[in-house]
Here is the input.
Amino acid sequence: SIPNTAITTAKAPDNNTPLLLLRNHQNNKQSTAFTSRSTSSSCSIILRLSASDNNIINSNTDNNDESTKTNNKKKGDSIRSTTGIRPSLHPTEINCIAEALMLRSTNNPSIEIDVSTTSEPLQVAITAGGIAMNAIDKRNNDKDDTSEKFTMEESQVISGRVVGVVMRMRELEELLVRRVGGVGWVKKYGEEESFGVLKAECSSDDDGNDEEELEKKLREVIKINPLFRMNRAECLLCLFLDTVERPKLELLGEGVVGGSEVDFIDADRLEVLRTANDGED
Here is the structure.
């Protein structure tokens, strides 16, 4: 047997490195290479797992953020909601009155929308109420996030005003024509249509205007001219608020949600609509 000292001091045939050290060195190289490959592989796996975990975490975080945004998203105008100010009811009311004018202009006897005809007042009220409720339902079911739902009180006010205007449509139209026709600058500058009124409506009976022909022309203009129709609806609502709703509420010492102020008509037109002519109370 070879002594241990001989193993440590024995020389390799081609160099001066001891054989045992040479073998150890070769073994260490193999071990190091294996360790390096293992470490590299492990690191690669760890890195892949880390990246995968990060993707999962980021995905979960994004989902949570989206869920939070969705849950926190509130229907309606966020700026207005912080002030506690509710949106105006007047645009919906005006659209409903304009729709009632459009239905009347069709002159369809099956649509009971005009109390001046043979229609029963109750049926006219039901038709007007249906127009208002359809508009309210459409608003409350609107997917637009900037639209706020009407409250029960607001819905009642809208319905009441639409029915009130439609039931008094002819009376309010007569008042509208008198007030527009009684202001000189309107006729001078031909501004009748900005009030939703035909120039012929403001002319006196002596001008030879046939009432039936005038009514036919009015129906045609209301059907084909949406701006004229909207202007007329605005003015009718204004007159209803000024001459019917507000005086009645003041007499009773009561009020309605949103108030009865006219804030949807410019100052010049409003002055005309509030100018009482001779013979008016």
Q: What stands out?
A: The two ends are 140 Å apart (CA to CA). DSSP finds eleven helices and no strands in the chain. The longest helix spans residues 19-72. The CA atoms of residues 58 and 64 lie 10 Å apart.
